Amino acid sequence: MPTRQQLSSVAEALWLANTRYGSFGSPLGLVLAQDCGELRFRHLTATWSEVTVPYPAWAARPDNALCLPTALALADEISTFAGFALWDHRHRPGVSISLSGQLVGHRQQLPRVEPGEQLTS
């Protein structure tokens, strides 16, 4: 079983390689602190990871309702580089998953998220 330090080293290397080369995660704001980003690993084990990142201001709707496509894009990228690639013994990021979502609420009461609010995935 890998140690937290080993997992942290692999996770950090995956994120740095991912974001330094203009990947999908960079424009989403999924960048580590050493590259002037705000993505933080809160918990890493061989079976579970938890990451926080501020909700991007560019994704905020005028009514502050959650932008579902942005939330799914964030979840997809985070699950790849803080999950599947981290746990794969060869650390391959090319795992495909299928994500879908549905906003639940009444027209006036959709889930709200403020720009910069910390999201946990």
Report the total helices. Answer: 3
- The tally of domains stands at 1
The total of beta strands comes to 3
The sequence of SSEs as H and E is HHEEHE
Termini separation comes to 23 Å
**Shape assignment:** globular
Q: Would you write up a description of this structure?
A:
With 121 residues, the protein is α+β, with helices and mostly antiparallel strands. It has one domain (4-120): Hotdog Thioesterase (Thiol Ester Dehydrase, Chain A), CATH 3.10.129.10. Helix content is 34%, strand content 12%. It has helices at 4-20, 25-28, 68-87, and strands at residues 40-44, 49-54, 118-120. A hairpin with a 4-residue loop joins β1 and β2 (49-54). The longest helix has 20 residues, at 68-87. It is globular and about 45 Å long.
List keywords for this structure.
alpha+beta, Thiol Ester Dehydrase, Chain A, 3 helices, globular
Short description:
With 121 residues, the chain is α+β, with helices and mostly antiparallel strands. 34% of the residues lie in helices and 12% in strands.
